Amino acid sequence: MSTFKPLGMDRREAFRSVGLLMAGISGASVSNAGRVLAATENGPVRLIANENPYGPSQSAQRAMAESLEDGWMYATAEGRILRKLIAEREGVGEDHILITAGSGELLKMAGLSFGRSGDIVAAKPTFSMLVAYARNTGATVHEVGLDQDMRHDLAAMESSVTANTSLVYVCNPNNPTGTLLPADQLRSFIDTVESRATVFVDEAYVDLLDDPKHNAMVDQVRAGKNVILARTFSKIHGMAGLRVGYAIARPDIIKRLRPLQMSFLNVMGMRAAIASYQDDAFQEYSKAKIKECLSVTQSAFDDAGLAFTPSVTNFVLFDTGGSVRDFSRAMRRKNLLVGRSYAPYQSWCRVSMGTVEQMGQFSEALWAYFRG
Length: 372
Ligand SMILES: Cc1ncc(COP(=O)(O)O)c(C=O)c1O
Hints:
The protein has helices at about 10-15, 20-25, 35-40, 60-65, 75-90, 100-115, 130-135, 155-160, 185-195, 210-215, 220, 250-255, 265-275, 280-305, 325-335, 355-370, and strands at about 45, 95-100, 120-125, 140-145, 165-170, 200, 225-230, 245-250, 315-320, 335-340, 350. It is α/β, with parallel strands linked by helices and about 375 residues long. The longest helix is centred in the C-terminal third of the chain and has 25 residues, at about 280-305.
């Protein structure tokens, strides 16, 4: 970054103080559009991994640039700061928060811990990280198909809970369908199930919703229920490569998970997260851009006459009506990387939101493939 100046000792000391660090993001300019285009100029356009090319925010970039000299340090103080910020915003104690290397690390920790003490119940298809890790480490996983609206079939999942079940994984909104459960249904599901098994709600995309407060299950944690929530800086904050996520759960559950953590927090990621977490303007911008992308993409599916899921996330699952492999190969030839299919929806393909311009490119390629 051309404006970077090494920090003098005085400023560095000051930077380490909680107060200044927390105040240090004012005046953030929100747009990353120029950099987004530059970053993707040469390689294929990545519409494949539910990343967010509008991030990291300018405030996060500045925090990282100002941290270059501090790469020698363990990020213990930063971990405390971020935990405090999250706890305050979520209305829980700091002992309810565990920061992890992306939410992926947390998913694996839960898969390992709970998979050792019983069976796992999960939807199919859903985000596979917890399920796959549990299986790979010897657990039994019971998969329950989605309902006809491609949403979790909560009644069927509840019936699958047995005396052996230790954890039920609910990804809401769900990846790869992008669908959202009605919040009241999920709350009553938790009510019925939590005395028998821990309910793990993966809220990776909850910040992108119109009403995150109503849909997030943090009230269930506050009420002392047997619930784990997973959150991430990879989506709305556009920080997938920086690896910051966190759990919100009762302290006894946090204590159970913590010993399984493998990684250590990194200074860059933590300082970027602290800045971005307080950067409401960027989060609004990021959310608005993703919505604009969704609207461009869904119009393209409508124009091409293709069925698609009513996604509230930064990806859409749509029906190619044929071979997803053929479709993605054709897109690859146009320099567009798109996702794959998910059993049992073999002809459906997931596409992630890039920039608005990239979704325009995708729309043209889609039209040429299906209607050209
Ligand atoms: C539902 C869901 N949970 C968790 C993750 C993992 O994200 P990260 O490890 O980057 O926080 C993803 C990533 O795509 C996801 O879709």
